[in-house]
Amino acid sequence: GSSMAYSPMPFTACCPGNVNRIMPNYIHSMWDVKDNVITARMYGPSVLEGEIDGNSFSITQRTGYPFKLDIEFEIKTEAPFTLRLRIPEWCRSLGISARSKTAWTGKKVASEAGFQTFEITEDAVIHMELYAGISEKENHGGVYFERGPLVYSLGMIGERSIFKTIKEYPSYRIIPDKKWNYAVAAQADPEFCEGNDEKWSLEADLPCIIVSCKEVENWKLRQAGKMKATNWKYEPKEISFGKIKTFTPSIPKKRTMRFSENTERIKLYPYGASKLRMTVLPKEEYYDQEYYF
Questions:
Q1: Distances in Å between the alpha carbon of 148 and those of 89, 93, 134?
Q2: Where does 170-230 have alpha helices with state H?
Q3: Kind and range of the H or E element at 180?
Q4: Using CB atoms within 10 A of its CB, is residue 188 exposed (0-12), middle (13-18) or buried (19+)?
Q5: Cα 88 from Cα 92, distance rounded (Å)
Q6: Which helix (H) or strand (E) holds 15?
Q7: Which one, 114, 227, 241, 261, has least CB within 10 Å?
């Protein structure tokens, strides 16, 4: 049952450990230094300090990434080096400006596959802005929305109740506290709105994508006490969920969906801003096969 709850000791024991590895691994992989070539592979507020041939350098990265897509690099160096900035695949266009004690020349800035390259010879400040559009992508018979490095979801705070208690650390189950059973309208008309906060919370002023949707009136939460699954050896087994009996239903077939007459504009927020969310939604215009999450 704990595999379907927010539990400090879930059935899938690898999850808590991997969650705790995400940020250290991300930070560890942000910068790469080989000889006199420094590569920014992933972005986030950070300071890189080191030496090249016995001469010190530092690069301070200032940014609100991933919520904001503009990044500033302040460089202080006693030695020349090559700086490579990775350009993500989702980036549709790029804005670059740079300044130093002397004017930049065309020979000092170059492009290569997936990277913008600078020949650094002195202290400098580089400003980079990544431009992204909204992408609608198919998954398991539904669609979801991305912009830049973030996936967007219909998030909700939910109604929380204690499922069971392990000493002083309880497990929770959370069920929706608002409408979730939407299908993306045939004309979704997605619109991006900037936010002002950089906090993973629905209570913050985060960026959002607004899309047109219709409520699927006959798409309800599924009640079940047991589920067929496999064990670690991929052998079939049946899992009993005890008191947890409410589940997200499969995406309905188009011919069975009953839509509300009204189209609503709903807000999708960054995936990690809520514990309870719907990310993949059916779409009004197609389905002839049943898919499952």
A1: 9, 11, 8
A2: none
A3: none
A4: buried
A5: 9
A6: helix 14-29
A7: 261
Q: How many CB atoms lie within 10 A of CB 251?
A: 24
Q: How far is CA 233 from the centre of its chain?
A: 31
CA dihedral of residues 84, 88, 89, 90 (deg, nearest 10): -150
Q: For residue 139, what are the contacts with CB-CB under 8 A and spacing of at least 6?
A: 280
**Separation of alpha carbons 158 and 173, rounded Å:** 9
| Rounded distance between C-alpha atoms, residue 146 and residue 153, angstroms | 9
Tokens of 250: 């499969």
Cα-trace Rg, the chain: 24
Contact 69, 148 (CB under 8 A): yes
The structure tokens listed for 149 are 């490095």
Residue matched to tokens 């992204």:
132
In this structure, what token pair is assigned to residue 160? 């929380």
Q: Tokens at residue 137, please?
A: 């992508």
Beta bridge partners of 277: 155
| pLDDT over threshold 70, residue 286 | no
Please, are residues 194 and 204 in contact by the beta-carbon 8 Å criterion? no
Query: Which residue has tokens 């503009």?
Result: 70
pLDDT in tens, 184-200: 999 999 999 999 999 99
pTM reported for the whole predicted model: 0.85
